[in-house]
Amino acid sequence: MRRFLHLGLLGLLLASQLHAAELANLRNGFSIRHQRHETAGETTRLYMGVAPDSGYIDVPTAEIEGFEPAPPEPQEIMAQPQELRNLNSIVRAASVRNQVDADFIASVIRAESSNNPRARSPKGAQGLMQLMPQTAGKLGVKNSFDPAENVDGGVRYLRDLLLLYDNDMIKALAAYNAGPQRVQQYKGLPPYRETHAYVARVIKDYNRTKLSKQKSQQRAQLHHKSAGEDVIAQRTASSVAGSE
Fold this sequence. Notes:
The protein has 244 residues and is α+β, with helices and mostly antiparallel strands. The protein has helices at residues 15-18, 81-98, 102-113, 133-139, 147-164, 169-178, 180-186, 193-243; strands spanning 3-5, 22-26, 30-34, 36-40, 43-47, 56-60, 64-69. The chain is 52% helix and 14% strand. Helix 6 packs across helix 7 (180-186) and helix 6 packs across helix 8. The radius of gyration is 24 Å and the shape is globular.
């Protein structure tokens, strides 16, 4: 499991700025969260914030395996209860239209944007399902920050990938993250750390959701069974009492 080296951010940053944060993945297994970076030969400078005096650290360029968008911190998630209820409705509708599991869609959204419709990545991906402008254009999405438009386009793209790979979720997720051409090139999951982490995050969340629902259903069944047994016991007791 990835260990995060949390280096303090000085000052309070706006949520829109924080969502532009990156992770520098190091060869030693750690990741450093930062706002932006500059590479100058053998040294890469990681800036901890957007303010000029927010500080930075210098890391040997050779020690950095790569960069990826940083997941939002819990306090960055901006969706309010009403927004989440609306999002659930949007997801259910997209699920029915496209015949894609609603829980799978929800897991992708959580991994992509943590349910934040205003999320924007350093690479330019936008909205709940982090659509790149070029992809959004091909899907007919005019406003990627509109939750309904974004989810509709993202789910249609996800459906096409699932059909392309015969419902192989791992390949579909890898293609969603790294592009179908990379999946074709490597005949499966590309050897990119970011893509591996992304696929694992979505699958783990999806399995956790399904397991939680299964346990809830089992508890409900046990509750109904217990309630039914209580009713039978009460009726039996009443019958016995009436016959005495």
